[in-house]
Amino acid sequence: MRSFGSDNNSGVHPKVMKALEEANRDHAIAYGDDPWTAAARLKIKEAFGEEAEPFFVFNGTGANVIALRACISNFNSIISATTAHIAVDECGAPVFMTGAALKEIATPDGKLTPELIRPQLYNWGFEHHSQPKVVYISQCTELGTVYQPEEIRQIADYIHQYGMYLHLDGARLANAAAALGLSLRQLTTDCGVDIVSFGGTKNGLMMAESVITLRPELAENLKYLRKQSAQLYSKMRYVSAQFIAYLEDDLWLQNATHANAMARQLRQGIESLDRYEFTQSTDANILLVKIPKETYLRLQQKYFFYVWNEFNDEVRFVTSWDTTEEDVEGLVREMRDER
């Protein structure tokens, strides 16, 4: 069965698998004291800037939890969209692991703005209320929309006035950068982002993520937080080797560009049927579309995908680095069949 459920369902890129195989030779010092990790750190700095300090981990929820723990105390609050990954898909881990309150904001497109954040910034210094400390955004959002760099900069500039931090969940940062024709740095460091969860698992890696601090004070205790959060991988070379392959020769960009192209092709194919309603723009590799229940139940017999909102028959399709034109054409063909 081919999947449009998540880019987590795709395989590992051959170049990444080769890098893992090459790293699987002889012995190497554990916990990151190996040449692969040193080389991967340099690659991250090249991509995000000299101030970037990477801490390699092996899943996205762990990366988000560690990044948030670096920013806050348990009497603080985290501000996010109601559709944010940390609010919907992490089983309460950010609240459980940080002890902080999560303040969710309803948005029409999954994107926060200073105007939406403003009502949450009150009761400063009042001990009866959690103190706002970090704003969480994801790029791309869970709805498939993409922040323009000036939108991120506006949020950063606004909350920095209050001594707050901006955490960017970049599980699909590569897809956003590819869609906008910008570098990874231009969407993070140059926009005033303070800490990044930089993902690779959704874009051709096996099990590799990185928490990247862009402020020195956030890096100070992060190695301890990573260990406490059960994200310090002993055989670190296998994670680091993946990032070397990912960042060399812009493999991250090639993979994301292809995934985005397949999403555009899929949207065009569905639009040509002139019977289904899209609920969001398709800025990168995620599509949200309303499909009658009897139709999506039939489609799920051949393709795996998630029902995003069962109350209004909204489903989500996600394309991957290894989605093929045949995959797209096959899904559209099945959607054309009204049986």
Give the strand line-up of the largest sheet: 2-8-7-6-5-3-4
Return the CATH class of the largest domain.
Alpha Beta
| Termini separation | 21 Å
N-to-C order of helices and strands: EHHEHEHHEHEHEHEEHHHHEEHEEEH
How would a textbook summarize the main sheet? 7 strands, mixed
Unreliable runs: none
Number of helical regions: 14
By DSSP, the count of extended strands is: 13
CATH topology of the largest domain: Aspartate Aminotransferase, domain 2
Estimated radius of gyration: 20 Å
Gross CATH architecture of the largest domain = 3-Layer(aba) Sandwich
What is the domain tally?
2
The assigned structural class equals alpha/beta
Mean residue pLDDT: 96
Write a short abstract of this structure:
The chain is built from 14 helices and 13 strands.
Characterise the protein shown here.
- This protein has 339 residues and is of the alpha/beta class.
- It contains 14 helices and 13 strands.
- It has helices spanning 14-23, 35-48, 60-71, 85-88, 93-98, 114-117, 149-160, 173-180, 216-219, 222-228, 237-247, 251-273, 293-299, 325-336; strands spanning 2-3, 53-57, 76-81, 101-105, 131-138, 165-170, 195-199, 209-213, 277-278, 286-290, 303-304, 306-309, 314-318.
- The strands form 3 sheets. Strands 2-8-7-6-5-3-4 form a 7-stranded mixed sheet, sandwiched between helices.
- Helix 2 packs parallel to helix 11 (237-247), helix 8 crosses helix 12 (251-273) and helix 12 runs parallel beside helix 14.
- The mean pLDDT is 96.
